[in-house]
Amino acid sequence: MLRILYRELHYQIAKRNPLIANDEKQFQKTIKNAMDIKRGIGVQVLGFLPFGLLMASTFAFTDEKLVISSLMVSLALIPFVFAMYVTAVQTSYILSVGLFEPLKLLPIKMGSRYLSGLLLLEISPSLATVLPSALFLMLKYPLPGILSFLWLLLGLFLGHTLGLLLVNFFSLRIHQRAGRGHFLKSFARVMMFLLFIGMFMMMNYLQSYIREHSGEVAAIVKKYFVAYPFAVSSIFEPLRSMALFLAYLGIFGFVYYQTLKEVWKKILEPPVVSERRIISKFRASPKGKILALVLKDFKIFVRKPAMLVAFLFPIYVIFPTLVSALQRGELGLEDLLPVLFMIGLFSVPGADAVLKVEGKNLDFLKTLPIKKRDFVIAKVVSMALIPTFLGLSLVSLGAFYNPAAFVLLPYALFLPFIASSITMLYFFRYKGEEIGIPELRWPHIVLMFIIVGIVFGVIALPIFVSFNVIGSEVIALVTSLTLAFLLGRLSR
After folding, report:
1. Are 306 and 171 in contact (CB under 8 A)?
2. In terms of pLDDT, which residue wins out, 104 or 215?
3. Three-class HEC string of 394-460
4. How far is CA 404 from the centre of its chain?
């Protein structure tokens, strides 16, 4: 069953990708590759492996148990966050394309097990980023290495379970006339969930601090050793580590099983939610095509908060800087600059959510007089909107401490636009006016990280040479204008 669902999912993805669908030979080749689960997963593993080996080098040159256990705490967040992100986005997309509609007619008690298995197949390649570290650790300390391996697998499972919970509570509903009250409730739930995950996400940016202050970090970890991911630091205490591992496995195993039952019930009969609204006369709106498409994207995000959570992931980038600013009572230019570049860079994964938000809507959009250029520009705006807002908010906060921070305002406007434009121009580089959903695998996202990172490196070059912020912003402006011209010329 998993093989059938996997093949059908990737057939649907290929069919919605005009770059592939319009070329018969390419389509046949893609379908052949997509039908092979081993080949599909293997390609993704090879894409992740270089990053895994790079992170493993830290463990190769570190022998101190205190440092290793602290580093494992932050490393365990990678499969956890990745699994939660993919589960939230991919579940909404899988259900929106009707992949499970045929199963509703079959006498299956809990078909969500197949949904979970399909998602785990999509998530599993991310382990290539962390398992090399566990293997290096096994060579030095066999038993702690095995325990770290188990904890990394558990992190993947915990993230997957939380992603399913997110989908269960937020997405599997049919909203009729979702009004302002629904928007506020959805937004509040999303913010609470982001704050909850943000507590763990900050640990990802503390590896250098951990190495330099391992004693202090170890004291904090020891204080909160029961909470994940701090519990991972217990790998050098096998009995306590196994007890914590089994406790987490038992509790979340039960939550996972109950969630799967609830998910399947809602897939079979989605609950209908409606709100009372005042009936008003219809008024034609003068909105342009691009603005209408952007508003459509965000309306769908509000109705599917699980996708919105994934789309808001760039928020996590600013958490460490905000915490540091609150602790020190200052936020200087040297603090803001790298974070603004990181916000721009980490807007790249938003392409996944922005494109997959379409689902079944794509067939309807193809019937409208929408050109590919309009569709792509709308996606650029949708993708850049949240990172731009974050950048502007961060610059405003910096100006509260130091008015000179306003000189960085152009970065908040240009960098997310540059990242979004490069990403969309890459995915929609095919000829013709047909709109579609290009194939987005994580190796593609990694490639976009590299390309955008190189462009950002060129923009930042004057800063590295002589801290010439104005010169750097001029390069960013020229790059933005060039990309805007290319977007305007798309398909011509």
Report:
1. yes
2. 104
3. HHHHHHHHCHHHHHHHHHHHHHHHHHHHHHHHHHCCCCCCCCCCCCCCHHHHHHHHHHHHHHHHHHH
4. 33
Task: Please check whether residue 227 is in contact with residue 80, taking contact to mean a CB–CB distance below 8 angstroms.
Answer: no
Range list of β-strands (E), 190-333: 272-274
pLDDT tens across 55-66, in order? 787 777 777 777
Please answer whether residues 87 and 234 qualify as being in contact, where contact means their C-beta atoms are separated by less than 8 angstroms. Answer: no
Helix residue spans in 269-314 (DSSP H)? 289-303, 305-311
Say how far apart CA 149 and CA 154 lie, in whole Å: 9
Q: What is residue 213's DSSP assignment?
A: S
> How far is it, in rounded angstroms, from Cα 485 to Cα 206?
40
Distance of CA 141 to the CA centre of its chain: 33
Q: Amino acid identity, residue 483?
A: L
| Minimum mean pLDDT range among 102-116, 129-143, 194-208 | 194-208
C-alpha 470 chain-centroid distance: 32
- pLDDT, greater one: 151 or 47: 151
Query: Is residue 77 within 8 Å of 206, Cβ to Cβ?
Result: no
The single-letter code of the amino acid at 455 is: V
The pLDDT, as a whole number, for residue 422 is: 93
- Quote the pLDDT of residue 415: 92
Report whether 12 contacts 99 (CB < 8 A): yes
Q: Is the pLDDT of residue 363 over 80?
A: no
Contacts 24+ apart (CB under 8 A), 143-148: 143/238, 144/68, 144/235, 144/236, 144/238, 147/235, 147/238, 147/241, 147/242, 147/245, 148/72, 148/232, 148/235
| Cβ–Cβ < 8 Å for 301, 309 | no
SS3 annotation, 208-262: HHHHHCHHHHHHHHHHCCCCCCHHHHHHHCHHHHHHHHHHHHHHHHHHHHHHHHH
**260: pLDDT strictly greater than 50:** yes
Start-to-end C-alpha separation, the chain: 44
The two tokens of residue 336 are 């803001």
Angstrom CA distances, 224 to 69, 217, 233, stand at: 14, 11, 10
Q: 59, 148 in Cβ contact below 8 A?
A: no
pLDDT at 353: 74
Query: Alpha-carbon distance 316 to 405, whole Å?
Result: 21
Q: Cβ of 209: how many Cβ atoms within 10 Å?
A: 15
pLDDT band of residue 261 (cuts 50, 70, 90) is: confident
Check residue 129 and report its DSSP letter: G
**Which helix (DSSP H) or strand (DSSP E) does residue 175 occupy?**
strand 174-176
Locus of tokens 């750097």? 472
At position 284, the amino acid (one-letter code) is A
